[in-house]
Design brief:
This protein is α/β, with parallel strands linked by helices. It is 43% helix and 14% strand. It has a single domain, classed as 3-Layer(aba) Sandwich (Rossmann fold). Substrate binds at residues 9, 13, 35-38, 55-56, 88.
Length: 141
């Protein structure tokens, strides 16, 4: 079971809902997280249970980032709106930076999300289930 997060900017929320509907069976066996409104909209349209954090501008990105910092997130689908300025842009950049530091796969558009979910469907995320000492960014203690 992997930890997967969904985040979508306002103009991308319908797109992420449709994407999750299309791959609902793939996501069923995993622990799911999201920012507030995105999670609500997904749960309204699917039978999935999602742990919802605050909305992005109210700290939801940072709450997911805390899981990333502890290497407790395995995959993030974050459909960003590149044509709209976001008031919490520093939080977004910090989350993406943490994903890079920890080696967490993150999709920021539907094309990359499709590739990652197809890999998830084929079981190609087994490397994320390794003990922490073998994961990128985790020090052996």
């Amino acid at each position: 079971m992997l930890n997967i997060a969904f985040i979508a900017h306002d103009r991308k929320k319908s797109e992420i809902v449709n994407f999750v509907i299309a791959y609902e069976k793939v996501f069923e066996g995993h622990q799911l997280f999201s920012t507030g409104t995105t999670g609500t909209r997904i749960m309204e349209q699917t039978d999935l249970t999602i742990h919802r954090f605050e909305s992005g501008p109210l700290g939801g990105d940072q709450q997911i980032g805390a899981l990333v910092a502890r290497n407790e997130m395995d995959l993030i689908i974050f459909l960003r709106d590149p044509l709209m300025a976001q008031p919490h842009e520093p939080d977004i950049i910090a989350l993406l930076r943490l994903c890079d530091v920890q080696g967490i796969p993150v999709a920021t558009n539907i094309a990359t999300a499709e590739i990652l979910v197809k890999a998830l469907e084929r079981g190609e995320f087994a490397w994320r289930e390794l003990p922490n000492k073998y994961k990128p960014g985790v020090d052996e203690a």
